[in-house]
């Protein structure tokens, strides 16, 4: 068999480092496609001039382009036989990525726990994306439930990594040179600074996007994520193509411009859960909750910790009385963004 | 409320200049997407070599990329609460835009007229797009009907700008260096010069394109136009997403290659009306009528004034016996194009 | 009539060379779109770094971008009135194409045979694509069945070109500098060299993609192929848009990464047939058969001759008992790929 059947739970060993295949050079083409696929308007990612005025060499590629590209490379090795994508944590963006950069990624197995049914287990990996100079641009932890192929394979010793509930503000990496002290709020689209946001404040981002099959497939392919379930309508018994969770992250983040236009850069992903599956025809809306506000050492730059919730239609509640996510909650993401102080 | 609720009729004052947010750097990515979204084949916009042979530095971005980008920036300030996009006039393309340029736009309120029902009014703006050097690349007048929020707000003095019925040929701005005296008709695809077109001549552009939701949403997002009605299938009672009028302009213009392959550059938009809404599933066709032919001072360059009509299916008539647009007429656009003399 | 009605069978003369219109400059935008449209993962086309390590200046544009662009230009002159696209042969890729290059194409009529019904005939053309320096980058033979307009026009002398069943391995053109002697199999995604493939070996590429209208239209327009049948749902009596055959070639080739990740460059197209039409909603799968393995003079570079079959759903058989293609076989392509020896 020359084709890749993917790894099964018993194939992972603690401490193993997997170098994922197919490095990828990103260009202005990926940047343009990102703007066509998502209603993205952050000025720093839209205009070279705006980015220069903020101390960067040019407009970087959207942080989520970096996330999706690095993530996409892990799919053939990590999640081809995944039953569920359980969560993210300790994600940090470590350096901006520009058109012309080439990204590759690798993952270290940092946790394993066989499920009590003996048919599957949870695999924790820390994935690192690097540019062509070998500099780390992103790392994050992801855990997925993966099927066993050989049910008789012995259960590994259980190792569950201790993960920080959130990246500490002092651990956020601010891009070299970033300076918001002469930030142009008019060009950015909204007048609000970090200090204008109150912890606990909730922002309904108002707009909605009804998603189409062609769009999520274009996006998911662009990141070279080839999980069958996103592309093959004959794969699931219900004939539906499951939309890549990252598509929802990008949609919700782009929608959040309306009320959070100055939350320019994603500095960290503290936690994330794909609460319910998303399918074509759903109308994705989003709301955010301000979880924290912190200072950074960069001039004029603050960090705002946000919960970003994507929903199918309007759904202001995150969980029902039973404590479970409402059926129309699609995403619950906890992240740090950099904003004028 | 940190989100943008848009302006209402009573929020506009004559003479006010609104600087629209989010400058945008355009690249070869937007150019490629334009070719994927529209059946565009104009040689000047397809080939750097052809453009150089016509005296330009390289192939410029399609004029309508410039129009859509400049227009898109105005939406949050001008048409978020628009009931109808009523018309365009006095539009002139002032300088070519190349990959790497960054565009921004601003609008001056030049006319106001409250409707007799007291619930809405017409706002006239002159919008100017500028590149990163502050040079104007496009200006045009647009008027939209906008709702009042506070019905008790006093009606403003009525000001209706006097608009030229068409840009005078001597006011057309010809790109510096443009020279069609060695124009390669074989490469361009058709042998016809301006002198081969008779005033009154009508050209059926033959081809049709059945439009899809994913396509018009990709296009409209690419121009950072975020009007809900284009994206959210739950917004209109009929569950249909209204297609951005500019999508129809670009479709029709691209279809007009077949018969007008040498109408290379758009120099002016004299007038334009979105006669009827367009929805996914319609098959857009187009025909043109030659309205005028004029000389320019540039070597070998003539100007041809064209009416471009987009229809849902074939519809050779513009108006019915009642003088109204036929229900299957989508667009009636009057523009000047530059063509070999 | 200023519009192009296309040529009919009686309009072609043996030896005539047709220079096709509208040269096209390709950029990183087309490259990104190719990755969004097809699940393409070949490392040489994904990463500038990987391409440099293989002796090239940077990552070239996918060979099929070149094929589609060159082919697209021929449509208005060759296949606008085609009843059927009958086959391909003697195709050779002659030089890599990079972002920034401008392609044009021309075709020589090398064969004519009127059908016995007197209503149509077969036209054979040899098409050559050239870059901005006039260097040939691709040539191939295609034959199509074209309608006669004037049924009374005399039949031409029958000329049927003798075409090689396959390009001989010694006639393959290896890009200057290509060197696979330090090939990084881990980055490329699979460990298999040419010597690991046995003649007769069949590889099921496992994955499938359900195709959408928006996708094939975006792709087909990107190559400036404007045949009505791909875009206009009112053109065929059944209301279906026929998918451009090249879309299936690209889909199948991209799917073949899974099992043939190291079949990096297409060196030749020996033969090709679009066995059955493809429509939106079908789920395209693919399998390959190894037909031959050969040496080349380039360091570490072998050539592998492959049959690539695209199917609607899973269909391991090529032909039925009657010798005809199974109804769910979409494509039967015979090509040479360059692979580490």
Automatic annotation (TrEMBL), chains A, B, C:
InterPro entries: HotDog_dom_sf, MC_hydratase, MCH/BMMD, Thiol_ester_hydratase_Rv0216. GO terms for molecular function: lyase activity. Signal peptide: none annotated. PANTHER family: BETA-METHYLMALYL-COA DEHYDRATASE (PTHR43664:SF1), MONOAMINE OXIDASE-RELATED (PTHR43664). This is Uncharacterized protein.
């Amino acid at each position: 068999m020359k084709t890749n059947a993917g790894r099964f739970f018993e194939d992972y060993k603690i401490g193993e480092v997997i170098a994922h295949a197919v490095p990828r050079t990103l260009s202005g083409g990926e940047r343009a496609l990102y703007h066509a696929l998502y209603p993205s308007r952050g000025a720093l990612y839209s205009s070279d001039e705006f980015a220069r005025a903020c101390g960067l060499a040019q407009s970087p590629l959207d942080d989520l382009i970096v996330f999706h590209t690095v993530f996409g490379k892990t799919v053939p090795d990590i999640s081809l036989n995944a039953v569920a994508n359980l969560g993210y944590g300790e994600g940090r963006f470590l350096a901006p990525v520009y058109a012309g950069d080439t990204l590759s990624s690798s993952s270290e197995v940092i946790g394993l726990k066989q499920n009590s049914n003996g048919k599957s287990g949870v695999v924790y990996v820390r994935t690192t994306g690097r540019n062509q100079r070998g500099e780390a641009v992103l790392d994050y932890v992801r855990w997925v439930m993966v099927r066993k192929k050989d049910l008789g394979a012995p259960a590994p010793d259980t190792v569950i990594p201790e993960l920080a509930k959130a990246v500490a503000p002092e651990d956020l990496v601010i891009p070299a040179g970033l300076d918001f002290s002469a930030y142009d709020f008019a060009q950015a689209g909204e007048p609000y600074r970090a200090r204008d946001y109150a912890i606990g404040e909730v922002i309904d981002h108002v707009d909605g996007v009804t998603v189409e099959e062609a769009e999520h497939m274009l996006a998911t392919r662009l990141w070279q994520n080839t999980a069958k379930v996103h592309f093959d309508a004959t794969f699931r018994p219900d004939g539906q193509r499951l939309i890549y969770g990252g598509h929802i992250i990008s949609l919700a983040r782009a929608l959040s411009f309306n009320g959070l236009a100055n939350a320019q850069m994603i500095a960290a992903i503290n936690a994330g859960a794909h609460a319910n599956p998303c399918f074509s025809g759903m109308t994705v809306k989003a709301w955010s909750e301000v979880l924290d506000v912190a200072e950074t050492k960069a001039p004029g730059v603050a960090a705002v910790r946000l919960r970003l919730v994507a929903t199918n239609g309007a759904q202001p509640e995150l969980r029902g009385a039973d404590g479970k996510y409402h059926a129309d909650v699609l995403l619950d993401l906890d992240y740090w963004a950099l904003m004028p102080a």
